[in-house]
Amino acid sequence: MAVMTDIKKEAQKAKEKINAMPTRVLICAGTGCVANGSKNVIKKFQELGCECADRECNCSSNTFSTVITGCHGFCEQGVLVVIPSLDVTYVKVKVEDVEEIVESHIKGGKPVERLLYTDPKTNEHVFKNENINFYAKQTRTSLANCGEINPESVDEYLAVGGYEALAKVLEENNPQNVIKTVADSGLRGRGGGGFSTGRKWGLMAAGDKKYVICNGDEGDPGAFMDRSIMEGDPHKLVEGMAIAAFATGADEGYIYVRAEYPLAIARLRTAIQEAEERNLLGKNIMGTGFSFDLHIKEGAGAFVCGEETALIASIEGERGMPRPKPPFPAVKGLFGKPTIINNVETLANVPLIIKKGAGWFKSFGTSTSAGTKTFALTGEVNNTGLIEVPMGTTLREIIFDIGGGIRNNKKFKAVQIGGPSGGCLTEEHLDLPLDYDSLIRAGAMVGSGGLVVMNEDTCIVEVARFFMNFTQNESCGKCVPCREGTKNMLRLLEKIVGGQAVMEDLALLEELALAVKDGSLCGLGKTAPNPVLSTLKYFRHEYEAHILEKRCPAGVCKAFKTIIIEEDLCKGCTKCARVCPVNAIEGKVKEVHKIKQEACIKCGSCLAACPFKAIKEV
Fold first, then answer.
1. What stretches of 14-124 adopt beta strand conformation (E)?
2. Whether residue 55 has pLDDT greater than 70
3. Does residue 385 come out as left (phi exceeding 0), alpha (psi in the -120 to 50 range) or beta?
4. Three-class SS of residue 417?
């Protein structure tokens, strides 16, 4: 009983400390907003107010506290500044706006309307996050603290109930009950596989030494869900790992995070140090006899290290390459010892499940896919960013409600879901519930949660070529089907977009895709053909148009374009001829110029150089 009592006392002290702070100004310091200049915005607020935030402060006349936070999700509107007590969210804030916010709103009580979010449909200003369409239909649980608390302060995490779940499991001292609760919740791996987390924990073999690993090697292009949790709420991940270790009997763990995430690494290091200082990590945690040491392993950024056996090899100091399974890591993993591996989002859900119960978690989502899921919404939608919705939410709700529809009133064409391991879905799937099983039946997968929306101007074949180029580059080369198969698939796709393919190439592409899917050693190779197979399933007519009709229906592929000069517009200025790298343009000064089509490489230099818009692609 003392464990829970002590943690609640800590939480109460933290709340009192935070409540004593003057008006909290929450400024996003996630990677996206930092790139947009949030550090300078933070500095300016600190200059005009105080620098105490969560630090000890001797100020006595502060009017507000500057508090850094993790990612708010609405990255395209950054830098985001939220002042909860004034019910306001400011977007696209720059350094020169700060003084006006302070003087006009914080001190004067008059909001700065020009910095409020403007709804593109109503053209009206919106004050609060929950009234902005991007946030209104979200259900944020694993992301709940991101944007709300300072990720570099354990007190802020304690004040919102942090480490109470760990205290609860230590006090009850029943590891099997923890595993049963996680299994009953229906939590499935959020890294792509969708395997039952509780069942995985239950498979951990007996042994005198066991490990817990967090897979933070987020490598999908455009995906940043795990990064945002590590940057915005690192203590939740630390607590989730400690609970996993207690449940499975591990006493040591690693967070494997790619070196390209320096901010996440820095905040994780701070969180681990703070947790150790408060006896929430390390030896004899909270005096219960349970010990758990946690380390960070920086990865070199190889996509294949998202595969668990390759990740283990990387931690062991070997080249990150997968090995055949079985034995599974739960039996023989890191350094030959039983090991469980979960990704960041999976582990971040664990403290909430323990604290609120399996039934609470199952109240979200579908019967086979419980809880919520984060997605990185990008591409041709009006609102891009990081979102969290209940499993089973439809693509239409995500793209047209949260995403605000297609940019520039273009027509929706497709969405690539699950990154390079996922598949491409069409308009007919807009009402498909997003859960593990529905997506697999449709030829896609949840994957890590990347969502790339495409409009009518997108060439589907080029999209397949783009993802195949990525996976071919990331193949470790260990197994022949992946090494040689992806290389030849890429070659065939390049022939198609290059206007050089025949129908036999299309048949060979499909045959190779199935062979690579069936024969590859690990998940990278087994899922690499998914973009090709799904686009062949739903957009075969576009492949055939490239091959049989020698045209790109979307008008994207250069091989099918011709650059011409319109004689009535050409003034003979010679600028186009001077920039042509292959001397394909001929003509004298003040005479109409012509392009030698057999020599033109369609680089587009002449298009940009012509001041009279006399050159165009047809």
1. 23-28, 64-69, 81-83, 88-90, 117-118
2. no
3. left
4. strand
